[in-house]
Amino acid sequence: MVNITINGRKIQVKPKTTVLDAAKANGFYIPTLCYHPRLPIAGNCRLCLVDVKGSWKPLTACTTEVWEGMEIETDSPAVIETVRSSLAMMREEHPNDCMTCESNGDCEFQDLIYRYQIDAQHPVRSLLRNKFKKTNHSITEPCYSPYDNSTFSIARDMNKCVKCGRCIRACHHFQNINILGFINRAGYERVGTPMDRPMNFTKCVECGQCSQVCPVGAIAERNEVIEVLKQLDSKRKVVVVSTAPAIRVALAENFNVEPDFDFTPKMVAGLKKLGFDYVFDTNFSADLTIMEEGTELITRLNEGGKFPMFTSCCPGWINMVEKSYPELRDNLSSCKSPQQMIGAVIKTYFAKQLNLNPEDIIHVSVMPCTAKKGEAKRPEFVRKGSDGKDVPDIDYVITTRELLTLLKLKKINPSELKDAKFDSPLGIGSSAGNLFGVTGGVMEAAVRTAQIITGVENPIPLGELKAIRGLDGIKAANVPLKTKDGKDVSVRAAVVSGGANIQKFLEKIKNKELEFDFVEMMMCPGGCINGGGQPKSADPKVVLNKMQRMYTMDNQASLRLSHENPEIKEIYEKFLHEPNGHLSHELLHTHYND
Ligand code: HC1
Ligand code: SF4
Predict the structure, then answer these.
(1) Is 380 designated active site?
(2) Which member of 1, 5, 198, 525 has the lowest number of beta carbons within 10 Å of its beta carbon?
(3) Which strand (E) or helix (H) includes residue 310?
């Protein structure tokens, strides 16, 4: 152990610990902005400066490791004044539109400005203002960047950027897509795209990992809260909501409930209180996906087809195939994602039960993902209304963060409400469907059903397919199945999450170093539990916690197999007739773009 002193208190820490980690672990506050526990260290915001005895200049706590006998001061007058001056300069460049900003109330920069009380009277702010008044320039003018809402998923307002570079590191470190970087120099430096193009002209997959780590509101999802509020308040149409698997565990973390507490009934109660007429579960359509995708896999195994077959429920992955790997389009399952499947059945099967036309229903989908917004806007996901006009299957997609904003606006705390149940007939989901929200879950759900349907004698016991559980980026397992003529086959299954891992994996497939039959692909590391639209968190354990919650929910469930879902049996009996049948192809399957 290393002996150090912070603000006069003696402590012991492990060798190679950074001053920042040592301080945090022992309850000392050091301000940060570019630091994020899940990203590589950059050391570029210069807010974490500390005084160290013997050093002629303050040192950055995030990049400096402790040494024996080190004496650190985090709160010396010089340190405080340096931090205040840096913040004052940043504030002078920052727009004053906090009241309508996506991040209002959840903004690390706002917190720092408040904590250090950087008001208009700060000498650095006045100095800068006078200087630019004299030269007839606004300090923000040369840094002006246009607002970029060229994709349906992400909105980028670089005027709000504090140049911490976290988004750049997220796009590189998690996804290796490298859309964002510092551009320009000599005081005009800012975050931009290659050739400063709008995002939809780049290879951006709209995953939103950049927005997850943005400490301010410079990169965020394209907000649909106001539109949803208008629909809820006007009550002109039947407003229906469906909720993705990963939402409930994110809310459970957000409201800080016990690890084995299932937040689902509270979430449903919160949505009902918001005024939704019907609350449905995307877990239902995850089960439907298993029926359709499982049948597709078994058909390919029996009759031949493109291998490996890739899952198709992650829109970030679909964007990546269409933009960067078009040669793999035929390897994708033709199944729509569960979001789009429930979208299609709500505006057909459910509409018919209520004697409504598709245009009489507004369907809001709550997703942990930003790319789902773009998926819902794809031109193929529409149907004809009674007047012949196109009606989208999903009208609005809001992220978990946007759902929290809605709840806050309406002053609803779901954890204080009485439990409520999903509505029928699209409200029952198995825990296999729920597992879709974590990396490996689609594969686990598919294996459970495919082994039973094909008649495997000793199917893997539930929860025992351990090789594809956990947060590793690339996982694999051999799965016994049977062909239709009773032959035993071993299906080579792989599970990959995170753009950087996907690229590594595909390189090995291309070079024939690896061969697989069925592969689950998720663009966000860890799967949807870590989607780009999930609540921001500085807790490095938050993804792990959400994963554990998913597994606990599976252990506690009584319905653990997609094909045993009574509402799935009912929809095939009454409406779809058979998986991969004529109506299924029309409603539940799709094609991909060149
Ligand atoms: Fe996902 Fe999916 S699991 S893609 O990760 O297949 O977003 O949660 O809703 O559609 O079901 C996301 C999550 C989600 C779909 C399902
Ligand atoms: Fe990169 Fe994803 Fe952000 Fe696009 S949305 S810039 S791919 S992190």
Answers:
(1) yes
(2) 1
(3) strand 309-310
Q: Please state the length of the chain.
A: 594
Mutate to test the pocket of ligand 2, among 152, 174, 197, 204 (most ligand atoms within 8 A of CB): 204
Q: Which 8-state DSSP code applies to residue 18?
A: B
Contact (Cβ atoms closer than 8 angstroms) between residue 109 and residue 164 = no
What whole-number distance in Å separates Cα of residue 36 and Cα of residue 214?
Answer: 10
Please state the separation of Cα 110 from the chain's center in Å: 23
Question: What's the per-residue H, E or C state across 184-210?
Answer: CCCCCCEEECHHHCCHHHCCCCCCCHH
Angle (nearest 5°) at CA 457 between 453 and 461 = 85
Query: Could you tell me what percentage of the chain is helix, strand and coil, using 3-state DSSP and rounding each to the nearest 5?
Result: 45, 15, 40
For ligand 1, pick from 312, 318, 369 the residue to mutate: most ligand atoms within 8 Å of CB.
369
Q: How far is CA 463 from CA 248, 395, 438, 550, in A?
A: 20, 36, 14, 11
Residue 213: both structure tokens together: 């780590």
Q: Active-site residue 375, yes or no?
A: yes
Whole-complex ipTM: 0.95
Q: What is the pTM of this model?
A: 0.95
Query: Which one from 86, 145, 285, 333 is the annotated catalytic residue?
Result: 333
Q: Are 516 and 489 in contact (CB under 8 A)?
A: no
Tokens found for residue 565 = 């879902």
Q: Which atom of ligand 1 is nearest to the CA of 313?
A: 6
338 lines ligand 1 (CB under 6 A): yes
- Cβ count within 10 A of residue 295: 19
**Both tokens assigned to 102:** 């996506």
Check if 527 has its Cβ closer than 6 Å to any atom of ligand 1.
Answer: yes
Find the 293 Cα to ligand 1 centroid distance in Å: 14
For β-strands 518-522 and 309-310, DSSP reports them as: parallel
> Measured from the CA of 211, which atom of ligand 2 is nearest?
3
Residue 377: how many other CB atoms lie within 10 Å? 15
List the pLDDT tens digit at each of the 594 positions of the chain: 999 999 999 999 999 999 999 999 999 999 999 999 999 999 999 999 999 999 999 999 999 999 999 999 999 999 999 999 999 999 988 988 899 998 999 999 999 999 999 987 677 666 666 555 544 444 444 444 668 999 999 999 988 999 999 999 999 999 999 999 998 876 678 899 988 889 999 999 999 999 999 999 999 999 999 999 999 999 999 999 999 999 999 999 999 999 999 999 999 999 999 999 999 999 999 999 999 999 999 999 999 999 999 999 999 999 999 999 999 999 999 999 999 999 999 999 999 999 999 999 999 999 999 999 999 999 999 999 999 999 999 999 999 999 999 999 999 999 999 999 999 999 999 999 999 999 999 999 999 999 999 999 999 999 999 999 999 999 999 999 999 889 999 999 999 999 999 999 999 999 999 999 999 999 999 999 999 999 999 888 999 999 999 999 999 999 999 999 999 999 999 999 999 999 999 999 998 877
Measuring CA to CA, how many Å separate 263 from each of 19, 476, 489?
38, 31, 40
